[in-house]
Amino acid sequence: MDFSVLPSGALTLKNLRTPACLLAQDGDLTSIELTIENGHITSGKGTEVDMGGAMVFPTFTDMHTHLDKGHIWGRAPNRDGTFTGALDTVAADRAANWSAEDVRRRMAFSLRCAFAHGTSAIRTHLDSLPPQDEISFPVFREMRAEWAGLIDLQAACLVAIDNVSEDGPYARTADIVAESGGVLGMVAFPVPDLRERVRAFFRMADARGLETDMHVDESVDPTVATLRVIAETKLEMGVEMPLTVGHCCSLSVQDEAEAMQTLDLLAKAGINVVSLPMCNMYLQDRHAHRTPRLRGVTLVHEMRARGINVSFASDNTRDPFYAYGDLDMIEVMRQATRIAHLDHTGTDWPHAFLTNPARACGFAAPSLAPGAPADLVICKARSWTELFARPQSDRIVLRAGQAIDRALPDYAELDDLMR
């Protein structure tokens, strides 16, 4: 239940707090007063409501998700919790079950969760090894139209790098992506002809005018270092289209000098990075009856110091790659703060959950300024320690100035798909 019921009509919400960086101010939290009228933030006045110091955010962008995989755990659990186990389990489930109707229902379930939590923009990766590309992208286009005005949606194809070539099935997948207004994606890992595969990928994206998004080095093996090759190739080719790389786990275990040189290349190439710490810590260095030592969290502090556009996102939800999660960006912010020690290291980290992902994907920039849509998440918490100590299940989510019904869909709705 929302912690407060707001009256109807024009409102002036007094005694709110928000991260100062969102207002281009110095400091941690700052007081703010917001007037809402006709679905927008205005400079006028309405019925005054004292919010008691509650924290307010613009609605969130979740820039790395897998809506097509979500919520299959009930029928396809990862028996050993390993990365290999996740790959094998998803491949078997995809071959057996991923019809258009199956993908559609699970995708809609996930979007309902994200909307209830206060997310207004999502980029999803879609498994696209043929024939799945011909199944999932049409469903995505339907979902994008159905959710227009509620959640802005983007989709990136997901195909392993050893399937990337300009004269094979991947070329047709790239055409489907272009026809869908999507993003060209792949999973990058060491292959003998890595540099040429990356060049082919960039050429295909450039020919179709596509932005790019890669899963990169999702491993805690220090010899896995495709990220450096990707950055070098982008610079050598003069590639200008936006590129986002996700995971980049192996940076955390590489030689310090080598890792810093790679980060310098990333900064020079203008590459966006998205960290997925919840999923990475679930999968990396998992061995039965052995405590994990290597956690796979990429070097976000060092990236930020170099001016690299760094974001955090949900990644997988209740599937073999991550058994938990609910597409809740406040949970992502809480967990990332704890995992990556974002506290005590500057006051601008809120950008990594709001401004940075929107910039990386080209979504509308979140704003609390007059004229912006009144799309807000308000938490009763008055400070960061109060925000992160509890799950904020009593938050208020406003869309176009109106409080939404935040009731989450019941998992039982998907029971027939789990049989």
Automatic annotation (TrEMBL):
It holds the Pfam family Amidohydro_3. GO terms for biological process: cytosine catabolic process. The keyword Hydrolase applies. Residues 196-395 form the Amidohydrolase domain. It is an enzyme of class 3 (hydrolase). Its EC number is 3.5.4.1. Keywords: Hydrolase, Metal-binding. GO terms for molecular function: cytosine deaminase activity; isoguanine deaminase activity; metal ion binding. This is Cytosine deaminase. It comes from Actibacterium naphthalenivorans.
